[in-house]
C-alpha cells in the first residue's frame, strides 16, 4: 500500500481563494478592508522570508498589509508602545509579532500585550485559555491548518486515536486541544515518552511536530493512519553539491508513505497552510470586530 499524498499547496490556495471572496464581499457590502500588521524585530534571515511572504499573500487576497521592521536593538518599551498603537488602530484587525525575538526582549510579555481579539497567532494567554475551555478563541495557524486537512480527509474525527509528537506552545499543545475538541482520544508524546514508537503505532492520526529531522519512521505508523508532518528541517545534501541543503520533515517520508493511508509531504504539506490560516484568522478577527457572521469552514 502507498499513502495518498495530501496536497497542502492546493489546499492553501483554496483557502486563500475563499478568503479573497469574503474580502471582496466585505468591501462591497460593508466598506471594510481587513488589515494585518506584522512586526519583525532584527534581521533573522528565515524570519525575513516569512514576513515577506506574509505581506505578499495578505495583499494578494485584498487585505491591507502593515509591515513594521524594527532594528535588532529596539527596546522592549518601544516595541510595547508600537503594540499599543496597533491595538488602538481601527484599520488593523490582526497583529503578528514574528518570533523569535532578540534575547533582551521578554517574548511572553510582548505577546500578552497584543489585544487578544487581534491576536491572529492565537498565542496570547487569553486565547490559550479560551481554546482549552472550548470557548471562541483565535487559534494558532499551523494547528488550525492541520485540523482543516484532517477534517477534509475524515469528516468527523470523533473517537479517533490521535498522537501528537511534540509539546510546543506554537503547535503541539494547541494541536492536542483542537483534536480533543473534535472528540479524538489524544496523547501528547515527547522526548521523554517511553516506548514512543509503540505509542505512535496506536494512532489513527499521527501529528509530528518535534523539529527533529526524519525522527518518525514507517515502523511507528499504524497501517492506514493519517500522518501530518509539521517539521521543516534543513539537512545537508552533499549529493546535490557542496554546501547544498534539502528540506525534510519530522517524518521519514519514504518509509512512512508505505504504511500510512494519507500523509503530508515536506515541502508542500503543512507549510503553505500556515499563512493561509493566518489570512483566515485575520478575516475572522475582522468579522468579530464588526459584528459580522464568521466565515464558514475557515475557523476551528
Ligand atoms: N515563528 C515561527 N513560527 C511562527 C508563527 O507561527 N508565528 C510567529 N509569530 N512567529 C513564528
Q: Could you walk me through the main structural features you see in this protein, from its secondary elements to its overall organization?
A:
- The protein is an alpha/beta fold and 300 residues long.
- The protein folds into 2 domains: 30-128, Rossmann fold; 141-271, Rossmann fold (3-Layer(aba) Sandwich), CATH 3.40.50.
- It contains 10 helices and 11 strands.
- The protein has helices at residues 8-30, 45-60, 76-88, 107-111, 125-132, 141-154, 172-181, 196-201, 253-259, 271-289; strands at 4-5, 35-41, 64-70, 94-97, 161-165, 185-189, 205-208, 226-229, 233-236, 245-248, 262-263.
- It has a 6-stranded parallel β-sheet, sandwiched between helices.
- A hairpin with an 8-residue loop joins strand 9 (233-236) and strand 10 (245-248).
- Helix 1 packs parallel to helix 10 (271-289) and helix 2 crosses helix 10 (271-289).
- The chain is globular, with a radius of gyration of 19 Å.
- Residues 96-99, 121, 141-142, 170 line the site of guanine.
- Guanine (GUN) binds next to strand 4 and helix 6.
Summary, kept brief:
The chain has 300 residues and is of the alpha/beta class.
SS-derived structural category: alpha/beta
CATH architecture of the largest domain: 3-Layer(aba) Sandwich
CATH class of the largest domain: Alpha Beta
Mean pLDDT: 97
Q: What share of residues is helical?
A: 40-55%
Number of strands: 11
Give helix and strand order, one letter per element, not per position.
Answer: EHEHEHEHHHEHEHEEEEHEH
C-alpha Rg, in Å? 19 Å
Distance between the first and last residues' Cα: 32 Å
Strand proportion, as a percent range, falls in 15-25%
General form: globular
User: Quick one: biggest sheet?
Assistant: 6 strands, parallel
